[in-house]
Model the fold of this input.
Amino acid sequence: MKKIFLIVFLTSLSNILVSQNVSFKLIKEYEDTLKVVAEKIMYSDNEQERVNANNGFISILKDVLSYDKSYKYPFDSLETISILSPENKSFRLFNWILRKDNGTYSYFCLLHYHNKRKKKYEIIELNDNSDNLRNPIYEDLDSKNWFGALYYEIIYIKKSGRKFYTLLGWDGNDGNSTKKIIEPMYFSGKNKVKFGLPIFRLKKKSKQKRFILECDSKSSFSLKFNKEENRIIFDQLVPIKKELEGMHEYYIPQGTYNAFEYSNGKWVLNENIDARNKQKIKKGSKPAKMGLINR
Done:
């Protein structure tokens, strides 16, 4: 009965939005409904209920984001949803997780941006296909083939030439290990979004297009941007035993730090950075509202 009531209510609300000019007050009513559904995605005990709520949430969010005024609406009551914008405010990401009963996660993201060519706001839905990627660090990806993650920071550094963004994200993986991702993102022709660029400069020659850290799920490790120094600082991870090298579910933080330093449009690796930078890493901070991530 509750489900039928919710469907009828949402349909009525959608019809109201279509039939009249949208005000922030009306968007607030819409947000209240989104909040209820979002909490069902995160906290319902039954996986099928979480899936049903997730499908409804996507439909509702797409409806309200189709209105121009929604672009400036904060949606800040959606505490289980990560909502991020770069410094230049060129787009917004609405990003969240769906917990499965087997201990894994599915990731969802709507990219909300202004299409300058068409002079209107549009939505790009990202499709999580990370389970089917054989060599994700080398893949060119797009909205239909996305390495799903929960993003907690967008880095935008102005430079001449192609404009790109660097996203920092969290992946709960499979319960045995946790991953964090450095993901380059840019817009291509006809406002298509692309992921992955060969901008990482490591010791050995590499055409790596994203950087992925993986660690034992019981350990906490950092991946954080230092804006003042234009560098991404992260824990150096090592296997708990030498014979486990390459099996990243057995990796733990060593207590030292590496960094990618930004130089001429590239992220250049600098290992074993000065110990004074340790105090700049605040483990246990919660950049995403749902508190799943330690940066």
In short: Helices lie at 2-19, 24-43, 47-65. The longest helix spans residues 24-43. Residues 83-295 form one domain.
